[in-house]
Amino acid sequence: MTRPNPRFIDASSQFSAGHCLAVIRRQKDGVTRSELCELAGVSRSDVSDRVRDLVEHGYITVQARRPSTGGRPADVLRLNSDRGVVLGATLGSTSLRVVAIDMAGVVLAENSHEVKLTTPIASRLKAMHSLLRSTLEQAGTGTRELMAIGIAAPGSVVPDISAGRWPLVEVCRQSHDYFAARYDAPIMVEHDACAAAFAESRHPRRKVADLLFLDVDASIQSALVRGGRIHRGTHRLGINLEHVMVAADVDVACACGNVGCVGAVAAGATLVERASRADRPVKTVRDLARLAAAGDRAVNGLLDDAGRTIGGVVANAVRLLSPQAVVLGGELALSSPALIAGVRDVVHDQVSAQVRVAGAAFGPRAGVFGASLLALESSLAPAAVNLRLAAGEGGARAARRAV
């Protein structure tokens, strides 16, 4: 067995090849070796060694030289976006989505597949596997390496690297184990709200470091991006606004055992029941969203009230967390300008009109883009790149493919 090259392992806490790549990635127009030395604060010899390693293993390219103001023109170093491909996937309640992106985050192919609410998890995973394979083929990946697969799924996620695996809960654990057995690539599973929040924070229209995200559907899921990273807290529980208690005209019991949680009072499941009692033809959140989009006044009235109830919780969260933006996603929120307007009105009235409150810019695709971007960030993190180089992986290896 080939022994890992200690040069890459020992350098992981210094200016390693992985750190060099991270600096180059941040320069969209490329960077010269001299500029790289200045940006990284290291010597020319350190840069030369790292650049050579990255070129040999296919992570960067040396492109046309820039015009010189004197002396020999300087080569430009750029990320090799063609080196690998990353897959992102979402296991939604009524749809499956898959996207393939290159190393620069550019979408190569995208697919979706509708499923029923009653579709068993085993059938969903099998359908997702087929969707992943077809998306890879459509992306025309050729010799690109499959770097990682990111999956956004409902449920709690508590990664434990020391255990050598992801001890996930319910659907998350099943998803990880199913795809880990079929793909020779790292599998990352993330809570769907966290994945969506991460994508929205990177959207070109936002590009914010601090963002509060709420997925309003049958339930209310929430996530916080702080300093450009998903905030998980000391106990890795993130934030959970669904069980913040609110005032209501009647006591509404929540599945958690408390009374008056905003998720029980204002989420889709409760609104479907109320709309049904008002003689509206609704059985699911999708029915509710359809009527809202069609302009049903009674349904939009319910959603406006729900928005104001949720807005009170969001206003308090904004006071505590001071995010740059509040983003609402989920089928119910995205189909209802009234719900989003209700949240915005309360936040602006109670906190500040400077706080941006809007629907998800990526729409229902926020989760799948977030899953792919998180997997990309993980696969190109300095430590991951150093370990891959130490193991002797590189451009000579053919693309990893599904078993």
From TrEMBL:
SUPFAM superfamilies in the cross-refs: Actin-like ATPase domain (SSF53067), Winged helix' DNA-binding domain (SSF46785)
Gene3D superfamilies for the chain: 3.30.420.40, Winged helix-like DNA-binding domain superfamily/Winged helix DNA-binding domain (1.10.10.10)
InterPro entries the record matches: ATPase_NBD, HTH_MarR-typ, ROK, WH-like_DNA-bd_sf, WH_DNA-bd_sf
GO molecular function terms listed in the Swiss-Prot or TrEMBL record: DNA-binding transcription factor activity
HTH marR-type domain: residues covered: 19-64
Transmembrane segments: none
Domain of life: Bacteria
Family: Belongs to the ROK (NagC/XylR) family.
Entry protein name: ROK family transcriptional regulator
Lineage, opening ranks: Bacteria, Bacillati, Actinomycetota, Thermoleophilia, Solirubrobacterales
